[in-house]
Design a protein that fits this description.
heterodimer, A: mainly alpha, MetI-like fold, 3-stranded antiparallel β-sheet, 17 helices, about 5% strand, B: mainly alpha, about 0% strand, globular
Chain lengths: ~450, ~325
């Protein structure tokens, strides 16, 4: 097993490093710390952040890849496996023949079978990889699920009390150091504990049961839907998180130079973003992706495995989304820079003969940080939702890559079946909804606290 | 006024040329005529002569930006870029891969798109503004907080979910309306109800939040205080003063989208089988018909620029403080 770094792996870990650096910056500045404390004083913000971190953690675990040689031991048929795949190997291997409902023991649709005397029979064939420990006895399933739920609850309880103890120890130390606990405390830790407990409980519950059942059913080719949904998290987080990282330098450099230098530079930059803006977003993305597809099909030899190819396509999609979505933030930054550079202290700095880059770095940038942060958090949810639509249109991520958009796209026609196959679709929507809702709620709170103009 | 409109129209020309450069770069420099010929003729048994013939047949044999073989102005004008741009500017979009005239296809498919997009737009606008005003009337109350929570939830659900859930509930389970299809005239109404309803509902979350924030900004201004001091009821203040003044910022966001309504909605039309421009575009993307995609990109930008100009004009009309300059 050789560790392999895909392009998107490197990018998501850089994003992780950036966030850590950002947090350290905030921690070292008393005023910023106070501001962010205010963000987390809201219970919804606390819950949202914990959920976002949970998703991000899964995406990170899914972003450490190893190359495996095709051999007798490697039964997963994959060339690249991530740490998440290792933890969920039983789900990759437990492929059924076709659809099965959540917790079902038999296939969803009946098959024609000849019995020993040669008669034709319609039977629901039993699944291959479920409930072997209770000999596939339907009457025992409810009891078994209940017992395992109990175990999951117990494990979550133990893990959580351990975490609370550790955290309590550090909090106690901090309070003892400061000796003015009543004033600075007040973060809703109890809500945080409860959220974390519920998340750990749900996670353990799914994990324990996934060994014996298809908790969320299987899809058309018999793959486990829970596994698909979990793998899609990485795609969603990557598109939401990295696109903003790609567009940020463009928006920042162009927006600030337009607002600060004015004159012909401003004209050129304004022309640039009006032109880009006037092309309908989806069409521009579609056109760029189509062109990318035709390049990739003519140069198929550039890419090694199918995973690398799919990863390249995801990277290009992120780049394209970044190139088309910087205009909004750029316009905002330009307007704000125009306003700030009229203020006296900037005029004074100019009169002192400071060079423009020093002025921008020292006097203008600090006043733009809140705009940038708000834009980054606000864009995240929109991009996660856009991925689903783009995949439906056919210009999203590679069809072989697990993503909520691809799941919805594949499952769309299943609603027309009689009886309906609903679990694939619903799982994708719920996984996506929780992420987007958490991001939206967090964005609202960040905007409310950081924006000096928000109604209070 | 007339001179102002003319000047605004002239400003649009460089932007459209820019759009053309982008589309040209995407479709011709990256995907060269040779590639297109090979894709069209099939990869296996194409000879250079066949490619040349294909290119000559479509006028694709000219150089991209600069023609060395010509002289004078022709060096620039006798090129693929100028030739393609001129065709687009005269709304001559050429033929699709299936051999149909794109221009006439677009003209035909514009009306079904409009039949969905226009009612969705108008009903959505009225509903959103009415609900936002109602919420502003009860600002700070539990109703306000609950509605805002629901609005965030509505915003966080993928549009695809509303379409699929709507089709399953209203068409498949309850059989109130047909699942998909389209018909001209009054018969077509039953096909339009569900997509319009879903379109309005999906937009309500973001809409209420947007209009509420506009009205809340107005409500703290001095003229509102004066109106209240005069003894006007809160309802009169809202409808007589806040709504009227709030319409100005609303105008900026609304007028710009009106022309683009012609383009239709990509997913809505393809889910409901409506033969409009949205489903036309999706089909073209999925069958990789570059001619149609190019035409739609150009058309979309033209409509957007018209929207920008309309916004400016409506602003000067409704807001006497804005002067024509």
């Amino acid at each position: 097993m050789m560790p392999t770094f895909l392009w998107t792996d490197i990018m998501i870990w850089s994003l992780f490093a950036l966030i850590i650096v950002g947090i350290r910056q905030i921690a070292s500045d008393a005023q910023k710390r106070k501001q962010w404390r205010k963000v987390f004083k809201s219970k919804t913000a606390m819950i949202s952040v914990i959920i976002l971190l949970f998703y991000f953690a899964i995406a990170l675990v899914d972003s450490i890849h190893f190359k495996v040689e095709p051999s007798a031991e490697n039964t997963t048929n994959k060339e690249l496996i991530s740490v998440l795949d290792m933890g969920l190997e039983h789900l990759i291997l437990s492929v059924e023949r076709t659809y099965s409902a959540p917790f079902a023991l038999n296939e969803y649709s009946s098959s024609v079978v000849y019995d020993q005397s040669g008669n034709v029979q319609q039977v629901y064939l039993p699944l291959k990889n479920v409930a072997t420990h209770i000999n596939m006895d339907q009457s025992l399933v409810a009891y078994d699920v209940l017992t395992q739920t109990g175990w999951a609850f117990l494990i979550a309880l133990i893990v959580m009390s351990f975490l609370i103890l550790i955290h309590g120890y550090f909090r106690f130390k901090e309070i003892a150091l400061r000796q003015s606990s009543s004033k600075v405390e007040g973060l809703p830790w109890s809500v945080a504990y409860i959220t974390l407990f519920i998340l750990i409980f749900i996670g353990t519950w799914f994990y324990l049961l996934s060994f014996d059942y298809h908790v969320l059913g299987t899809n058309k080719v018999g793959e486990d839907v829970l596994y698909q949904s979990l793998k899609s998290i990485r795609t969603g987080v990557l598109i939401g998180g990295l696109t903003t990282i790609v567009m940020l330098p463009l928006a920042l450099v162009l927006g600030i130079s337009a607002g600060y230098f004015k004159g012909w530079i401003d004209d050129v930059i304004q022309y640039l973003y009006t032109t880009l803006n006037s092309i309908p977003g989806v069409l521009l993305i579609a056109a760029a992706v189509l062109v990318m597809q035709s390049i990739m099909s003519t140069h198929a030899d550039w890419f090694g495995s199918t995973e690398e190819r799919a990863d390249m396509r995801l990277l290009f999609l992120i780049l394209i989304l970044g190139m088309t979505s910087w205009t909004g933030l750029c316009r905002l930054l330009r307007a704000e820079t125009l306003k700030i550079s009229q203020i006296e202290y900037v005029t004074a700095a100019k009169a002192f003969g400071l060079n423009p880059f020093t002025i921008i770095r020292r006097h203008i940038m600090p006043n733009l940080v809140h705009l940038i942060l708000i834009a980054l958090v606000l864009d995240f949810s929109g991009l996660v939702l856009a991925e689903a639509v783009l995949s439906y249109v056919g210009v999203g991520v590679d069809p072989t890559m697990p993503s909520w958009g691809n799941m919805i796209n594949q499952a769309r026609l299943e609603m027309a079946r009689e009886p309906m196959v609903w679990w694939s679709l619903l799982s994708a929507f719920i996984f996506m909804f929780v992420l987007v809702l958490a991001a939206n709620l967090f964005a609202d709170r960040v905007q409310w606290v950081l924006n000096p103009r928000s109604e209070k | 006024m007339f001179a102002y409109i003319i000047r605004r129209l002239l400003f649009a020309v460089p932007i459209l040329i820019g759009v053309n450069v982008i589309t040209f770069a995407l479709f011709f420099m990256v995907n060269t005529p040779d590639d297109m010929a090979r894709a069209q003729l099939g990869a296996k048994q194409t000879t250079p002569a066949m490619i040349q013939a294909w290119k000559e047949g479509r006028g694709y044999d000219k150089p991209l930006f600069y023609n060395q073989n010509s002289s004078g102005l022709n060096q620039i004008s006798d090129t693929l870029f100028v030739q393609e741009s001129l065709k687009l500017f005269s709304f001559d979009f050429g033929q699709s891969d299936s051999g149909r005239q794109i221009s006439s296809d677009i003209y035909e498919r514009m009306w079904p798109s409009l039949a969905i997009a226009l009612p969705t737009f108008i009903i959505g606008l009225v509903t959103n503004i009415a609900l936002a005003l109602l919420i502003v009337l009860f600002r700070g109350s539990t109703l306000d907080r609950v509605t805002m929570g629901v609005a965030v939830a509505i915003m966080s659900i993928s549009g695809l979910f509303y379409i699929i859930a709507g089709q399953v509930l209203f068409s498949k389970t309850w059989h109130w309306v047909p699942i998909s299809g389209y018909a001209e005239g009054i018969d077509g109404l039953k096909f339009l109800i569900l997509p319009v309803f879903i379109g309005v509902f999906a937009g309500i979350g973001a809409g209420i939040r947007w209009y509420r924030s506009i009205f809340l900004e107005e409500i703290n201004k001095d003229y509102v205080r004066t109106a209240r001091a005069k003894g006007l009821s809160e309802i009169k203040v809202l409808f007589g003063h806040v709504l009227q003044n709030g319409l100005l910022p609303i105008l900026t966001g609304v007028v710009v989208v009106i022309p683009t309504l012609f383009m239709g909605s990509l997913i809505m039309e393809s889910f409901f089988g409506i033969p409009g421009l949205g489903s036309y575009t999706i089909d073209a993307i999925q069958s990789q018909d570059f001619g149609i995609v190019k035409a739609m990109v150009f058309l979309g930008s033209v409509l957007y620029i018209i929207g920008l100009i309309l916004t400016d004009i409506s602003y000067t009309y409704f807001d006497p403080r804005v002067k024509l300059s």
